[in-house]
Amino acid sequence: MVVADAPEDLRLEGDRLRLERAVANLLDNALRHGARHVSLRGRRDGDDVVLAAVDDGDGFGALAPELAFDRFTRGDRRRHGGAGLGLSIVLAIAVAHGGTAGARNRASGGAEVWMRLPLAGTQARATR
Fold it and tell me: Fewer Cβ atoms within 10 Å of its own Cβ: the N or the C terminal residue of the chain?
């Protein structure tokens, strides 16, 4: 089951196709690794929009969450497949839009992976 939750007035400015690709990769990652429930959450945090995919799977296990953004990094290949590029693409798109991306294991189980992007109408941050 996938549930989406975001305020109606939450707005981003950017390349629509690239942002759609990033959100699709967030969701694909959560669906591959989640057990039953996945949520896509959007919220405002200061001058930023945070888009997060949250799942109820096993989390990142032995893999440190920050390493999940490295190209060709994969969790359990036998169970989940994939080339290990999805989250590195999310990070590249976020950075290209003046934002960042991150991940963490949730205390209640599962993982949360997010993009933090400038709110529409705000000045984008300098990128790394």
Answer: C
Give the span between the Cα atoms of 70 and 6, in whole angstroms: 28
- Residues 1, 5: Cα–Cα separation, whole Å: 13
* Residues near 79 by beta carbon (within 8 Å), at least 6 away in sequence: none
Collapsing DSSP to helix, strand or coil, 43 comes out as: strand
The structure tokens listed for 87 are 């989250």
Number of domains in the chain: 1
d(CA 112, CA 77): 20
Tokens coding 8? 């109606």
Question: For residue range 24-38, what is the model confidence (pLDDT) as tens digits?
Answer: 999 999 998 888 899
CA angle, residues 17, 19, 25, in degrees to nearest 5: 105
Nearest to 115 by CA among 50, 20, 36, 59: 50
Query: Parallel, antiparallel, or unpaired: how do β-strands 100-105 and 111-118 relate?
Result: antiparallel
Which CATH number fits the domain that encloses residue 66? 3.30.565.10
In this prediction the pTM is 0.82
